[in-house]
Amino acid sequence: MMKRRILTLCMAGVLALALFAWGGAPTSKLPMLEMEAASSVESGTESTHKKPTGTYENEGPDDMIGLLTYMEDGKAIIRDTENVKFENGAIVAAENTTSFVQMSYKEIGAVNGYRYQFSYNGSMVQAEFYRFDPNHLDEKGKACLESVKEKGSFELLDNEVPATLHPSEEYLMIYTDTKKDEKNEAQKQWAEELFLSFPA
């Protein structure tokens, strides 16, 4: 019993470090998300964001490739494609990959979860995606999703973590960018809009 408690605390610590620690890889070693310049300006507004078209399906009840590919194709996130590949419904990652990792998703009652780290506009961005099974939630999952529905955040190790819940209540996104300028805020809003539009 004591070993289980220690293991649970260790797993929670790993998740908390991933959520809050910014001492990871320097931005120069992270994949860089760059937006293409708009080819034309219509109605006085310039936008390079376009929602992906096509089919983005997950292979199984805990698979997330459909969502992750959708977010990547929509230019909300980016991964190091040399070290991380999507092949035949599976994720293949090199051992030294730190910019894309599977998270300790069970600590919040999810069935799967991944974190992306990348550079955007001179800042390090961290985006996490979790999948839940709404029909089989444990107590942690219920508490997490209810909290996000109620106040837009959930508590983890005495910290409030802002999160966005997909309308299907199957997916949760945590998007963190320490740079608060207009360009970075617009990119964060795009990531949230795209995430909410994922056809689950």
Question: Which secondary-structure class do the elements indicate?
Answer: alpha+beta
Reported for the largest beta sheet, the result is: 5 strands, antiparallel
H/E topology pattern: HHEEEEEHEEEEH
| Strand-residue proportion | 15-25%
Determine the mean pLDDT. 84
Report on this structure.
With about 200 residues, this protein is of the alpha+beta class. It has helices at about 1-20, 65-75, 140-150, 180-195; strands at about 85, 90-95, 100, 110-120, 125-130, 155, 160, 165, 170-175. The chain has one domain (about 1-20, about 55-195). It has a five-stranded antiparallel sheet, sandwiched between helices. A two-stranded antiparallel sheet has the order 1-2. The chain has a two-stranded antiparallel ribbon with strand order 6-7. The protein is globular, with a radius of gyration of 17 Å. The relative contact order is 0.16.
Topology:
Layout: H1 2-20, H2 65-73, E1 84-87, E2 90-93, E3 100-102, E4 112-120, E5 123-131, H3 139-151, E6 153-156, E7 159-162, E8 164-165, E9 171-177, H4 182-196
Antiparallel strand pairs: 1-2, 3-4, 4-5, 5-9, 6-7, 8-9
Concise synopsis of the structure shown:
With 200 residues, the protein is an alpha+beta fold. Helix content is 28%, strand content 23%. Strand 8 (164-165) and strand 9 (171-177) form a beta hairpin.
Tag the structure with descriptive keywords.
9 strands, alpha+beta, 200 residues, 5-stranded antiparallel beta sheet
